[in-house]
Amino acid sequence: PDTIVFYDLLGEMVFLSALLSGARSVPGKQWIGKHRKVLKMTATRRRNQNKRQSLIDDVMSLLSRPYLSQGAELLHAKQRRQTYVPRFVRARENRRMRQREAFPELKRVAAADGRR
Q1: Which residues make Cβ contacts (< 8 Å) with residue 18, sequence separation at least 6?
Q2: I need a surface site. Which of 40, 42, 94, 104 has the fewest CB within 10 A?
């Protein structure tokens, strides 16, 4: 079918098919580009933006001042190492023992290489 052409008040061509299909809106990506759809800054949007910015400011202020002093942090790290490192060492030794029991031929290969 042929495209029906109309002229608006300014004398510009208006295609009826485009008009009826609603193609007057912004084509393609609406939020980027030269002809992007610009959102109005409403009171709700401004309030949400301020809330988000205040939350970011709070987090940044908390991150800028550490809760522990340097000495307390070192002591805490030392206590964590005393608690967790032996547990990991035991788990590693248990894993090695299970492997040695499962594959006794590897014991001879390790002994020939000079490893435990």
Answers
A1: 24
A2: 40
Residue 5 neighbours by CB under 8 Å, 6+ apart: 13, 14, 15, 16
Return the SS3 of 102. Answer: helix
Torsion of CA 48, 51, 53, 54, to 10 degrees: 170
- Residue pair 37/30 in contact by the 8 Å Cβ criterion: yes
How confident is the model at residue 14, as a pLDDT? 59
Of the candidates 86, 20, 48, 88, the one whose C-alpha atom is nearest the C-alpha of residue 39 is 48
Structure-token pair, residue 46: 């401004």
Does this model's pTM top 0.85? My answer is: no
Rg of the chain in Å (alpha carbons): 35
Number of Cβ within 10 Å of residue 30's Cβ equals 13
- Other Cβ atoms closer than 10 A to 67: 7
